[in-house]
Amino acid sequence: MKWKMSQREAVTGILFILPWIVGCSMFFIRPFFMSIYYSMTKYDVLSPPEWIGLRNYRDLFLNDPETLSSIVVTFRFVLLNVPATFLTALFFSVLLNQKLKGLSLWRTLFYLPAVIPGVASAVLWRLVFAESGILNKLTGLFGAEPSHWLENPSTVLPAFVIMNCFSAGTGIILYLGALQGVPTILYESATIDGAGAWTKFTRITLPMISPIILFNVVTSLIANLQAFEQAYVLTSNTNDLPTWGGPNGATYFIFLKLYKSAFVDYQFGYAAAISWVLFAIIAVFASLILRSSKAWVYYENMKGR
User: Fold this and answer.
1) What percent of the chain has pLDDT over 70?
2) Alpha-carbon distance 17 to 287, whole Å?
3) Residues of the chain with pLDDT under 70
4) Which sequence ranges are marked TM in the entry (predicted)?
5) What is the distance between the alpha carbons of residues 237 and 157, in angstroms, rounded to a whole number?
């Protein structure tokens, strides 16, 4: 009887996950392996793929300075954006964890920008960063000269970082949930021992929420290495290819190069090779962060390090 019951449970479980298995097979597993094949072909969709081996990868690293420069630009953006959005989300989550009047309203207002579609948000920010926009009016109060942030190579990436910091609502919510899960008895014991606010934050708060910090840093790294829509909407004139990723290539991210290779130049094989290089970059950096987590991430069911 127990065997029949276990069989019935197994069949029921398989039936429940069957739609996911079918969907994953159709939309992930097959394209995953097909992209490996296409990355070793010359393929423009209109004609059958022509096998060329590793030529796409060789051209990418040896004969295409545009792709290599796009990787450098992407790294520069990641180094600016990941720490900035991390600190912004953590700072405001700590503020929203205090006992304030109208706390639910404040939390809603801080999270709201995160649900605005990326393209719509980018169009709104174009007005903010315009030469006559509100940001130049604010900086003008301190004597700064007005500037078109999106047309200056030295200010366009900081402008993108500002945009992303205002859309850090998802990170704020995750950190806020982690903060509320920290046992209050730890703070009470630290107060009795004479610990100050900074000591409590660095010795209790950060270690206790370190798993969420790890999750947010890894997901933020992956998302920023695939940055695309801001550069495509704000600094790329779709009718003028030389302006893509402007000004002067300052926002020519690797994902923008991938998109251009596939849907403008119709070099789908080459685009597949770029996607696998991007995948390798993401895998390397994510694995490095995960390996380093043994030294700074604390789990309650493990000994502290």
Assistant:
1) 95
2) 29
3) 1-5, 238-239, 301-305
4) 12-33, 71-96, 108-128, 156-176, 208-228, 268-290
5) 17
